[in-house]
Write a structure and sequence with these properties.
By secondary structure, this protein is α/β, with parallel strands linked by helices. It has four helices and seven strands; from the N terminus they run βββαββαβαβα.
Length: 184
């Protein structure tokens, strides 16, 4: 007579989910996209260096013209969002100024969150991927980020955003979703 196996398969692990109001929130690592997205946000700095191409290419124009463009480039205002068209739309959240000792500030992160969701409403986007702003290239506290995100989500009008993928470090999904479930 066969015996029952003593091991049991545990479902999930990579992602965890909850609802915050009418928004379905899924926390999952970068390599485990839980659904198709209309827009993806990225953590960025005032000179857009963090999202720059990693490959070095030969310039297509004369070096003097390239250097002139570099010298004349003005920084983007911290707390703003730069929109790059495409599919998905890229929303570059300017939350770092690499010329400062602490490159991020909480008010920049808060303002960028507001602008990201304002942009998604304007463009009628229903699903967004969002990293933990300030914690990808900085040391912003994740619990504080979740609190800012909860406050922001309370202010967005119903009917637009339906799904939010929080891009989190491997193994952090459950803990981050628990932060949404706990009152703070």
């Amino acid at each position: 007579m066969p015996t029952k196996p003593k091991l049991k398969v545990i479902q999930g692990g990579l992602q965890s989910e909850t609802f915050w109001g009418y928004v379905h929130i899924v926390a999952a690592p970068q390599h485990a996209q839980p659904f198709s997205i209309d827009a993806i946000a990225a953590e960025e700095d005032t000179f857009l260096v963090l999202s720059a191409e990693k490959t070095v290419r030969m310039p297509s124009e004369h070096i003097i013209r390239t250097m002139t463009k570099i010298i004349e480039t003005l920084p983007v205002t911290p707390g703003s969002v730069v929109v790059k068209s495409g599919c998905p739309v890229r929303l570059l959240a300017i939350v770092h100024d690499l010329n400062r000792e602490t490159s991020w500030r909480e008010d920049w992160i808060s303002r960028a969150l507001d602008l990201i969701f304002r942009e998604t409403a304007t463009r009628n986007l229903h699903s967004v991927a969002l990293p933990l702003l300030g914690a990808v290239f900085g040391t912003f506290d994740i619990q504080r980020f979740v609190n800012l995100l909860k406050d922001t989500l309370k202010r967005i009008p119903p009917g637009g955003l339906k799904r939010l993928w929080l891009i989190v470090p491997q193994g952090a999904s459950r803990g981050i979703i628990q932060m949404f479930k706990s009152e703070s």
